[in-house]
Design brief:
Elements: E1 2-5, H1 7-14, H2 21-33, E2 37-41, H3 45-58, H4 65-77, E3 79-81, H5 85-91, H6 97-109, E4 114-116, E5 128-129, H7 131-138, H8 152-158, H9 160-173, H10 180-193, E6 197-201, H11 204-220, E7 230-233, H12 239-247, E8 251-254, H13 266-275, E9 279-283, H14 294-304, E10 307-311, E11 319-320, E12 323-324, E13 331-335, E14 349-353, H15 356-365, H16 387-397, H17 400-418, E15 424-425, E16 433-434, E17 440-444, H18 449-458, H19 475-478, E18 482-483, H20 488-496, E19 497-500, H21 508-524
Parallel strand pairs: 1-2, 1-4, 2-3, 4-5, 7-8, 7-9, 8-18, 9-10, 10-13
Antiparallel strand pairs: 6-14, 11-12, 11-16, 13-14, 15-17, 17-19
This protein binds pyridoxal-5'-phosphate (PLP).
Residues 203-205, 237-238, 240-241, 285, 311, 313-314, 335, 337, 347, 349 line the site of pyridoxal-5'-phosphate.
Length: 526
């Protein structure tokens, strides 16, 4: 929960001789105990310091270093939000300019947040409550809020100062296309993943298309693959995986998955290869953040001389043995779609590779196909990563390991709470795998999945089915793909999977609300 403290409350908190000190301390205790976030407006800070000095004088407190330390400590614990210039003009005719500015700017960032103020006039605004009212209402820790699958506003609030700073800085700098932040991000991620080259691009989908096009150019010396050239992949994935194969000119071949990890089954790849010719490559997808079995896949690829394009859209930071995903295949394709483990504020993607030639071709393809504007060699795209996105991603990158760990702890908590429900299958983390839980996905047996989803919805809890259909059943693939075998396990997954909220900033009480609701459902629906 987000709580804006009006100046009168902050002063009460920092000056022990004031009447409101003990209530303010109680507010602070509740905020800390329950992991709430306290806010102050950047526009109030100089005023706060000035008033503190006056208060110190009034109460005869020697205001030197100690007061400054308390003031700094408070700022270190609080989040600081900016007041936008445009909001000044929106508030200029209001009765109380200061209250209006505080209110509208805080609500812009935290629409469900509350404001604690002892100013009676301010209390007339919705969600503005007195110090006593707050302590009365929030002493009892019970989760009453709706729980989303992912709460991107919450994540923005968590790192607001850094994000606001880089956004404003980069807008003002106006180097919008291929600015230095793009290269900085590419270098940082290349080092993080452990590859020689990373190339930023406009989306995860484009990362896949660019990889395949570069492979066709390098291997065959042609712009595209042919229809009779086949690429094996999973039918249980987002459309983009299969769509990229079509866009690169080849034919997708769908083989069944392993129901423990929901990833492509290497045994099925091998079976298909033993019966078929003209396969050029494999695209394993590290679905939900769980690595595909890369030892087996790479072994098969070596035996049959195939390329491997890893679809890492859902698994940034995930590992197979001691290797980061995206560093094992010929290329790795990342998505920075906002909901991904490393997500921007719009579309974005990246290709990782150790192959210098492929990197060079992709660098051309993202800029219309040439090394420079008037020297175009290939049929290219306009598929660059924006500087603004890169700067946001750089700021968020600092948090990616922490957030992946948080996701893993939430998964552990779910596992512990849900382990005794016989009608659900919990996600597994196979040997050699470091799962980054892009999704925490359970399987609900006996046809109860949709009913459980509905029940959760009624209790204010979001959940999602990824994916209700196999790619082979979509019109675009119907006469453009090949299907090996019956895909029974993948079909089963479409009917049973359900992804639960996995927002890295979820609190224990939020997760308990989810697990208790699931328990309640199965008690009622035996
Ligand atoms: C498995 C998979 N592959 C590819 C993509 C495509 O990424 P983007 O949305 O950035 O184009 C996604 C995105 O949802 C995905 O989940």
């Amino acid at each position: 929960m987000d709580i804006l403290l009006d100046l009168n409350i902050v002063i009460d908190l920092l000056v022990p001789l004031r009447k409101g000190y003990s209530v303010a301390k109680e507010i602070d205790r509740i905020i800390k105990e329950r992991g709430y976030r306290k806010w102050i407006s950047a526009s109030s800070i100089d005023n706060l310091y000035y008033i503190l000095l006056l208060e110190a004088k009034k109460f005869n407190i020697r205001h030197g270093e100690k007061l400054k330390l308390e003031f700094k400590k408070f700022l270190g614990e609080a989040k600081i939000f900016s007041v936008t210039a445009a909001s000044v003009w929106e508030a200029i005719d209001s009765e109380d300019l200061e209250d209006h500015l505080l209110y509208t700017n805080f609500k812009r960032i935290a629409p469900d947040g509350i404001i604690i103020s002892n100013d009676k006039k301010f209390q007339k605004f919705p969600d503005v409550i007195s110090a006593e009212e707050f302590t009365e209402k929030y002493r009892n820790p019970l989760c009453t809020k709706n729980i989303q699958l992912l709460d991107l506003q919450e994540e923005y609030r968590y790192m607001i100062e850094e994000i606001d700073h880089v956004v404003l800085k980069n807008i003002a700098k106006a180097q919008y296309i291929l600015g230095p932040e793009v290269k900085e991000l590419e270098d940082k991620i290349a080092q993080y993943i452990g590859v020689k080259h990373c190339i930023g691009c406009s989306s995860g989908t484009e990362a896949l298309v660019l990889s395949l096009r570069a492979l066709a150019i390098k291997i065959k010396g042609q712009e595209y693959f042919d229809k009779n050239e086949k690429i094996i992949t999973t039918p249980f994935t987002f459309t983009a995986t299969g769509d990229a194969i079509l866009r690169a000119g080849a034919t997708p071949v769908f083989v069944d998955i392993d129901l423990d990890t929901y990833n492509i089954d290497p045994k099925k790849i091998r079976e298909y290869l033993n019966r078929s010719k003209n396969v050029v490559g494999i695209i394993p997808v590290h679905l939900y953040g769980h690595p595909a079995n890369m030892d087996e896949i790479m072994k098969i690829a070596r035996e049959y001389n195939l390329f491997v394009v890893e679809d890492v859209a859902q698994a940034f930071g995930g590992m197979w043995k001691d290797k980061k995903l995206g560093s094992i295949g010929t290329t790795g394709c990342f998505s920075f779609f906002p909901s991904k483990n490393l997500g921007g504020f719009g579309d974005g993607g990246m290709v990782s590779t150790n192959d210098g030639k492929i990197a060079e071709i992709i660098r051309m393809l993202i800029k219309h196909g040439g090394k420079d504007k008037y020297n175009v060699e290939h049929i290219g795209y306009n598929a660059r990563l924006d500087t603004l996105q890169a700067s946001i991603l750089l700021a968020k990158f600092k948090y990616v390991d922490e957030f992946n760990e948080r996701r893993r702890r939430i998964a552990e908590f779910y596992n512990k709470e849900l382990k005794n429900i016989k009608e659900i299958v919990l996600p597994k983390e196979e040997a050699n795998s470091y799962h980054v839980y892009h999704q925490y996905t359970i399987r609900v047996k006996h046809g109860k999945r949709d009913k459980l989803k509905q029940f959760l919805q009624e209790k204010g809890i979001s959940s999602m089915v990824y994916y209700p259909f196999l790619l082979k059943d979509m019109k675009v693939f119907s006469d453009r793909c090949e299907v090996y075998g019956n895909l029974k396990r993948a079909e089963k997954a479409t009917k049973e999977v359900l992804s639960l909220p996995i927002e890295p900033l979820l609190k224990e009480e939020d997760i308990l609300k989810v697990t208790n609701t699931i328990k309640e459902f199965f008690k009622k629906n035996k």
